[in-house]
Amino acid sequence: MTPVSSKLYTDDVSLLMVLIDTNPYFWSSMKNTAFTFSKFLSHVLAFLNSILLLNQMNQVVVIATGYHSCDYVFDSSSSMQRAECLLEKLEEFVDKDESLSQEDSVDGVGFSLLSGSLSMALCYIQRVFRTGPLHPQPRILCLHGSPDGPGQYVAVMNAIFSAQRSMVPIDSCVIGSQHSAFLQQASYITGGVYLKPQVSDGLFQYLSTVFATDLHSRAFLQLPRPVGVDFRASCFCHKNTIDMGYICSVCLSIFCKHHKKCSTCGSNFGEARKQDPSASDQKRKTPDGS
Questions:
Q1: Are 195 and 210 in contact (CB under 8 A)?
Q2: pTM metric for this prediction
Q3: Which residues contact 178 (CB under 8 A, 6 or more apart)?
Q4: For 236, what's the count of Cα atoms within 13 Å in the CB-facing half-sphere?
């Protein structure tokens, strides 16, 4: 892999990886509000067109994040693909993901496959890094609404640290009713921007004023700063978010309760042995008995 220090970037050319949350259970829960999935897409499409208009060399790649799967639905660098194809491929993906979801019984809004879409975005960026010595500035924008999936904690954190090592910032725009601890940590660790719009109908204004600028121009702007980042982890045994827990000293797995054996690496956890006072006194004595 090309070392990070040897990568050369163009200042004002961006490679924007957009991850769109298409979880059918989440958007079905939004039907009671005025902000529907079709209105959300209208804001996103206007934002993507503005990115491509800012610089003719800008590249936009859209990845759909569903409940069961994730897939590339648009790539502006492809000469065979137009912007009109985005809605068609996105509709095909949503129908396929909904058909797979009908076999499962889901409580609430479910969890979207955020870890999978982040991995696909990083793989695409690494492929671009290998194409030549000069690259556009890569960044990831997560348009997310579903709650965090505790079972994806390890995979999401691996993707975050991989993005940090590759100097790829992860921007987060949370459109749901609650904050995302995963994306808060992702934006904080990678140097991205985390934002939860207060008014859903003004999503395009939030996207165009905060996330449209390239990385070179961000040094001259005052963008929203993270406030109250939730750094809590999820335990490996029950997948629950915990404040305090037990950590394996070998593989750093986190558990909410004490276990005799690590379920990840198989290491045995030994309890601290209490020393006998008489034995400790004998150790302090010198060989001559003094």
A1: yes
A2: 0.81
A3: 147
A4: 17
